[in-house]
Structure formats: structure tokens, C-alpha cells
Amino acid sequence: MANTISITDSLVPNPVPKSAIIRLESIYKIYGSGETEVRALNDVNLIVEQGEYCSIMGPSGSGKSTAMNIIGCLDRPTGGHYYLDNVDVAQMNDKELAHIRNKKLGFVFQQFHLLPQLTALENVMLPMVYADIDPSERRERAAEALQRVGLANRLNNKPTQLSGGQQQRVAIARAIVNRPVVLLADEPTGALDSRTTSEVLDIFSELNNSGITVVMVTHEPDVARQTKRIVWFRDGQVVHSDLTPADLNHLVTS
């Protein structure tokens, strides 16, 4: 019985913790209308606390990517409330969302999205331009971020002079340089081999251990097992909100 996972048990409502950094309340996302209506998210409730390291999983079409887009302020829900760092951002306009993304969120994607004509240092400096960081501070902070991901000796290399794993490290440095409250990673190891995946996951663990909240979407069980908490989506809903790596073993093999 120890391995039995109860949907009911996993969704019992709890008081909102003071340390909640992400809070989704009755979130709906609907595309189309009438006979063509699709509910990508259907009454999703989820809390991520400050300092957590969690992954979001689920089959294709489960709603995990839609949820990540809303958490990342890349899309707005059709209904419900989304509190990011205690601010309801669900109905903000595009300009307000862009400001929130730049100030409070860092993004790492499967594709690295580095500008090929810029050096690693210059790529990492870019978010600070949009955040109006003083030019004298940009270089120092970018170099510090690259050092954190093990690339202190690659500051002046362009992306074509870096391996895939090194490019992803530059992308991680760029994501943390504005000191976000949450680091969001969408399939960050999808383009990497197993050895490089392990190295990148070690960096995420180190960043989390330093206090950064990390939320990762992945379809790879081995990647999700490196996180401390796993959220499972199915049919636009959260069916398990607090899986451990051991729970995931049972779920994947059952």
C-alpha cells in the first residue's frame, strides 16, 4: 500500500503558505467556442513555494505547456487568478506582463536562443539592457553569472565556438542575471546528450540550493527524478500535485 497514489489525497486543499511564490487559483484556458471549444486547462490550482525545485509532467496534450506559458506570463488565462510573488498578474496587459517577465522571471528553453553574432558575455548582458541596469554594472553581473555556470573562461566565445551544453549554460546564465524570483525551464535538456544533461541538471540543483525557485517542464522521467517535487497533469488538470521521485517510479511503471 505504500506505493498507492491517491488523486483525492494529493488535491486536498491546504491554507496558502506565506512563502507561496506561484499561486494558480481556478485557472481555465479555453480556445475556440461552441463545438470547437477546447479546454486546455480546466480549474487548475497549484502552489509553488519560495525555494522549491519542482517539475511538471504529463502526456502530450495534458496542459503542462499551457500552464507553463501562463506561469511565465507568456499567455493569460481565460478565467481564474494567478498570483506571482503575491501580485495577481492574470489580467495584466501585454506591457505589464513584459515588465513582470523581465523583473521576476528567468527562462531556459530546449533551444538556446542565443544571438550568434554576440559573445557569451554579450548574450548574457542583453536582459539587463531591457531592465535598465546601469551599463557599468552589466559586464560585472554577466561575468559573475557565467562564472556560476562554469564558463568563466568562455566570456568572449561566440555560440558557434561552444558545445551544446556550453550554449545551454550561457542560456542559464542569461536567465539568472536579472536575479529573478523564479527560474522557468521548458524541456531544457531536450537537445542534450545524457552526459551533458547530467551536467546541466547539476547546475539547476546548485542554483536551487542557493535559494532560487526552479520550475521545470519535462517529458523525461529521469530528469524529473532529479527535482524534489513532481506535478502531474492530465486532460487539463492537476491530478497529482506532490509526487516524489519514488511516486513517479510507481506511476510510470504501473
Task: Walk me through the structure.
Keywords: ATP-binding, Nucleotide-binding, Transport. It comes from Nostoc minutum NIES-26. GO terms for molecular function: ATP binding; ATP hydrolysis activity; transmembrane transporter activity. The chain has a domain of 175 residues: Rossmann fold. The protein is of the alpha/beta class and 254 residues long. It is built from nine helices and ten strands. The chain has a six-stranded mixed sheet, sandwiched between helices. The protein has a four-stranded antiparallel sheet with strand order 2-1-4-5, covered by helices on one side. 39% of the residues are buried. Helix content is 35%, strand content 26%.
Separation of termini? Answer: 14 Å
- CATH fourth-tier homologous superfamily of the domain at 51-64 and 93-253: P-loop containing nucleotide triphosphate hydrolases
Give the neighbour order of strands across the main sheet.
6-7-8-3-9-10
- Count up the helices: 9
Class based on secondary structure composition and strand pairing: alpha/beta
Query: Unreliable segments (pLDDT under 50, ≥5 consecutive)?
Result: 1-13
CATH class of the domain at 51-64 and 93-253: Alpha Beta
* Proportion of helical residues: 25-40%
CATH topology of the domain at 51-64 and 93-253: Rossmann fold
Work out the radius of gyration. 19 Å
- Could you say what the CATH architecture of the domain at 51-64 and 93-253 is? 3-Layer(aba) Sandwich
| Total number of strands | 10
Which overall shape is indicated by the principal axes computed on the Cα atoms? globular
